[in-house]
Amino acid sequence: MLFENEIAKVGYLSRSVPEGIDLKEAILKMKVEKNAVILAHYYVSEDIQSIADFVGDSLALAQASKKQSSDIIVFCGVHFMAETAKILNPNTKVLLPDLNAGCSLADSAPEADFIAFKNQYPDAIVVSYINCSSEIKAQSDYICTSSNAIDIVNSIPKDKQIIFAPDKNLGMFVQKVTGRKLILWDGACIVHVNISMDKLNALQLAHPDAELIAHPECLPELLNKASFIGSTSALLNHVQSSTSDKFIVATEAGILYKMKQSVPNKRLIPAPANEQNTCACAECPYMKMNTLEKLYNALYYELPEIHLTEKVRVPAYKALKAMLELSK
Ligand code: 13P
Ligand code: SF4
Question: pLDDT by residue (tens digit) across 12-22?
Answer without folding.
Answer: 545 688 888 99
